[in-house]
Amino acid sequence: MIDVENFKKTGYQLIKGLFTVEEIDQIRQDASNIFLNQMRYLNYPIDNINSDEDFNKLLFQLFEEHPNRLIASGKHIQHLISLHRLSLDERIVSNLQKLGLQVPNICTRPVMFFNAKKLAKKQVYWKTDAHQDWRSMQGSLNSMVVWVALADIDTSLGALEVIPESHKLGLQTTEMVDSFGLIPDDLVKGNQFVPVEVRKGDVLFFSSLLIHQSGDNSTENGIRWSCHFRYNDLSENQFIERGYPHPYVYYPNPDLITPDYPQLEDVTNYFQS
């Protein structure tokens, strides 16, 4: 049951079990299959995978031995049809409307995260410090982030931590670091972060102005799987007055990533009857 008044007060609302475990497991499997394709090509022992931990260990190995393949695979999971379909699900759209977005509109492409220290070259890739998402979105004042748990995430796995009512402080970000609008330490010092533990299929709706950060994933082999969707409200008056600003820039690489590919022989062999 959604509590609109509590959302307005605290800046966030957790809806438990909005999606079924089966729905979430299918999206996780779609993502895992992309990595498994690379593992199979590299002759990793994927037939011996009997648990999430077994899969995770091979993922760590892939990152150690072939980081570019893991990074490329991680980029492709962002374009899964099942992930994009989830971002458009009526259960999300209807709750956005209940929480005040009269005309919800996707702000930027969906993002799936798989966070673990063993899969990161920099801290920001597995743990983010206190920040506000509005700084990177720059959309409607009531813009919202929807955070979907793709695993059971408690404090040991790095549950998201929020400062309740911090959305009422307005924009506190002074700079962008690694695409995150970080909050200066002196502005969050003394504030009490509250961890939001979730189970697979739970969905956290929160204001893009809410100050939040990642918790510490202290597990040995655990990965924090989640996906994040961002929405603006096309009916918000100041968003209209500001001319609907959109800060995201997408463009293709002008160079051939695989040099001299495809050759005519590659094309002919593929399309021969």
Short overview:
This is Phytanoyl-CoA dioxygenase family protein. The protein is an alpha+beta fold and 273 residues long.
Report what the structure shows.
There is one protein chain. It is built from 10 helices and 12 strands. The protein is globular. It has one domain: q2cbj1_9rhob like domain (Jelly Rolls, Sandwich). The longest helix is centred in the first third of the chain and has 21 residues, at 21-41. Strands 1, 2, 3, 5, 10 and 12 form a 6-stranded antiparallel sheet that branches. A 3-stranded antiparallel sheet has the order 4-8-7. Strands 9-6-11 form a 3-stranded antiparallel sheet, with no helix packed on it. 34% of the residues are buried. The mean pLDDT is 93. The termini are far apart. The protein is α+β, with helices and mostly antiparallel strands. Strand 7 and strand 8 (180-182) form a beta hairpin.
Element string (H = helix, E = strand):
HEHHHHHEEEHEEEEHEEEEHH
Please mark out the parts with pLDDT under 50 across 5 or more consecutive residues, or reply none. Answer: none
CATH evolutionary superfamily: q2cbj1_9rhob like domain
Please name the CATH architecture: Sandwich
Can you tell me the overall shape? globular
Radius of gyration computed on alpha carbons: 20 Å
The total strand number stands at 12
| Fraction of residues in helix | 25-40%
- From the N-terminal CA to the C-terminal CA, the straight-line distance is 57 Å
Number of domains: 1
Q: What is the CATH C level class, in words?
A: Mainly Beta
Mean pLDDT metric: 93
Strand content: 15-25%
Under CATH, the topology can be stated as Jelly Rolls
Q: What structural class should be given to the helix and strand makeup?
A: alpha+beta
Profile the largest sheet: 6 strands, antiparallel
Number of helices: 10
Pfam families: PhyH
Keywords: Dioxygenase, Oxidoreductase
Organism: Arcicella lustrica
GO molecular function, one term: dioxygenase activity
